[in-house]
Batch of 3 targets.
Target 1
Amino acid sequence: MPRKLPPLMSLPAFEAAARHLSFSKAAAELNVTHGAVSRAVRNLEDKLGIRLFDRGTRSVRLTDAGTAYAAAVGESLDRIAAATMSATAARPQRTLNVSTSDGFAGRWLVPRLHRFHRSHRDIDVRLSTSGALVDFLRDGIDIAIRYGAGGYEGVVSELLSDETVSPVCSPQLLQGDHPLRQPSDLRHHRLIHDNFRIGWAAWLEHAGLDGIDPESGVTFEAAAYAVEAAVQGEGVLLGRSVLVSADLAGGRLLRPFDLALESRWKYYVVYPEGALRQKSVRAFRGWIFDEMASDRGKI
């Protein structure tokens, strides 16, 4: 007996509109116009013979029937996405699409990537550094490195590394008229800031220091630029252990005193269920864990 199905092309628009309670946000997510979403939803309502949304002047809300239908449609689309990912995982793949943040890419991943290429010449890495959470299937991402509190839903999430923050500087700041030898010497040096969640105010309080303005100094939106400024001797950075690991190992930066704060945010390797069936994903995952373990042995 043939299935009684709704207009399938309308379902993604309805599900996105129901999730956001906004036709405009659904349109932005699907990269279509507001009108296209509105027409798709209206077409679905006409075919079903029920009203899915109550439409206001500036807002929409789901009807009781719409709420129940949205839950079922969302679950069905998730299953289709997972099945698609599983079905395509077994095919040969030369290009590996990796997503991560700009800071992690610039200060940790890219300087080491040649070692992955040397061992896996048949795999081309395509790196996306938006830092935004991705829809793996829609955005064509195979594996991601995320920085956060973990608990990513609907995907496999493995802890890659903890992180601590502590002052780091160029070796040249240990010389001159005001050598940096103890925490109180920071008052003679410029503070470098990035957009990290733990700032100088927290570290100075932890160190029991007062009389130093935690907002003073130079600020960079991108962590990679903040690290480079510290390497060039522009001041003292509250360095994130993972992002400064290569510069510490190479002697371009050092920790002038051993007083660190542990961050509750950590690095995770994230990928869809079934992705490890793909040779390239499996190879990259293994390599990045090995590289991170090697870092811990050097610093």
Target 2
Amino acid sequence: MPNQTQDSSWLENLKRKAQDLFAEESTVVDGIRSGFVDRAIVFIDLVGSTSFKIEHRENPENWILIIRQFSKLVSAAVQISHGNVVKFIGDEVMASFEKAEHAGNFLVHVREIEEALHSVTGFATAIKITADFGPVYELRFEGHEAPDPQGIVVDRCAGISKYGVPGEVLASAFFAEATWSLDWYEVGEVEVHGVGNVAVSQLGGSTADLEPRVAISRKEYASLKKERELMRAELARLDPGSVTSCG
């Protein structure tokens, strides 16, 4: 257990650091208020990575290599399109573009990126992409080269990304309006927690399923499954042909 002197020194250092930070607040606040800029935010998610990890649990180098190759190739594609990789979140890449049209140019090459991944990894690799556009504050962290966009647009984009499926590009109406020359289709609205209803468009078609996702625990799922099986058994007892006809 640390002694009294060490604890006291650590606490005093922290207090001095806090005082320095608080002293900066008046000048920092003015800079924040005037520092918001419009940015296109894009989330690129590798599909099926969890099942791939389970399938190759005895050879973890396989899935680590896939994620490594995915991250490197997507980063290169972002940079070619004049964007910046903001962060890596597991098997997801977050990118930022100063101009919406640059992000749009990245989005139209989804198929080519998937094909390039397949040629490199040897596995059929699918990605899903979500884009948004709006004001953010680019917050800089020590030791982190790229500024980290902060704003509702990031939360909105993350919320929409939950509805993406392999090969689809979804975007908010704000991004679709900013890249109006692309082939956007309105597919409905989704409710994003803390943001509200968000109009969503899909690039090149209208196949997206925007039905609300309902999360339940494993215990609830098991209970519902058992209840369904009992109902099917009772239905079969009353009308043997009904279960087959229901599928």
Target 3
Amino acid sequence: MIDPAFPDLGADLTLADTQAIDDCWNRIGIHGDKSCSLLAKHIHCRNCSVYCAAATRLLDRYALQQDDHHLVGAVEGDGDIVTRSLLMFRLGEEWLGIATRCLVEVAPLQPIHSLPHQRSRALLGVANVRGALVACLSLVELLGLDSSISPPSGGRIMPRMLIIAALDGPVVVPVDEVDGIHAIDERILKTAAVSGTQASARFTQGVLPFKGRSLRWLDEEQLLSAVTRSLT
């Protein structure tokens, strides 16, 4: 079940879904009173077959929920200047931006637990976010980026996890760095969309100047559709 302290993650779960998954790890397991008799054997709940089965059911829910969900985003206005909010983040050496309307939260990096019989190359496994099992995907794989490039090093650089409101429920994607949310003039976005090289980069609407470098402005609808396909 979803932790009531994190209601956003449970927004797409039906009552039947939550009743079907027994979150014993939150009651008698490592996040509960630790009274489970299997803890002595498995040390941690993530090593238990019950935890693994719950993660599998989570992924099954993504596969079965194919309702026609629509993202609704508001464009902020300030007088005659219309802006759109984008979250800027980095993967390796590349900076990317995605509309904040599909973002649930920026969270600290959590351990990712791999699953047997992975369904796709992009599926890294699951992450435990405040007691809720959430599917974790690789944007590097989805976007076709070069995974061999090492990210810049520095004491102030802190990897993060983006919790994204995908079409059939939230997913987590690890990123190397988050710069923040920026309001971009719609006129700049229109110019970027015209001059951007959409055909040569996956799920890209255009290319923007950002801190002396180029930033890929992601097409969130295409990206979220790819996320859904990777989970089914």
